[in-house]
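Changelog entry: the Rieske domain-containing protein record was regenerated in this release. Current contents:
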Amino acid sequence: MTAVTNQSIGNLLTKGVRNVWYPICPSHFLGEKPISLRRLGFKVVLWRDVAGRPVMLEDHCPHRGAPLSMGMPLGDRIACGYHGVEVRKDGTVVTVPGSPGCKLEGKNCVKSFPTEERHGVIFAYAGDALHPEPIELQFPEQLSSPEYSSFLCYCEWEGDYRYVYDNVMDPMHGTFLHKQSHSMSFGDTTATFRVRETPTGFVFEKEGQRNVNFDWTEFLDTGVHWMRLEIPYPATGGPGGNFHIIGAYTPITERRAAVFHWRCRKVDGWQRDTWRFLYKNRLEARHWRVLEQDRVMLEQFEPDANLRENLYQHDMGVARLRRVFRTKAEAQLKALEAAGLPLQ
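Regenerated structure tokens:
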């Protein structure tokens, strides 16, 4: 009898599928002292090594279970504040001051997470037992190309992180929930949608309407599960092309999500300077108001709201994205089971 059940799949989806990178926190969260966060079903500790690079381990000393975040960072290792046990960034115990030479020394017994710091965010790779080595971390054009300028927007929402993905994969909600927005007050209130395949995912788009409103959303899997959308700017939005949003979302707990959005625009020269000034002085507040509308709505959803839905044509993208995540989770669990490894 298989151990991979609907419940085990659901448990993994709640914590986030494995073998991908997740944004953990904005870079400014991490200063000179270690910090403790809950992410992806773990309590983790982060600190910076002597070169300033972020390090992330499970926040659990293998000796007695004390939080390593209460200890002292020592470059590539951290000393537990309870008994001084030193754990290296790869999860190996290197020194037990109270009992030198004991069997705990040299043992790799703390879960470690490869990290990268890019675009103002600390990313961590969450691999399973079959895939401990990180895959390549690739960024969408709006973050990787110097032709774009961007601002990071970070917040935390009460609720399942998957509702945030659902919200972004639902362009039609912009026509109603955000109808007073300076950038979403145009276009038809009815639409027919289609799904278009791409090399890294798919686009969910309105038929016959482009560059009018929130007309399409794209899901990209490039080592991170990204959401990308584009909103036309009116003349009051200043110089430059359309407004792009790149999003990625990480579970904190079953009822709390870390929400990362990069707000991007293709501008250069004096236009870049003008847009960045205009954004900070006028446009940012407008975009926060729109995001707050989403937050307030989603935080009122019941945890089981997605079990009592009646979906229609506008929800093809949501249904498709949910299948993508479920298929990944099921495949990962079956591979672990076949290898005789514990289901995560």
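The CA atoms of residues 96 and 102 lie 7 Å apart.
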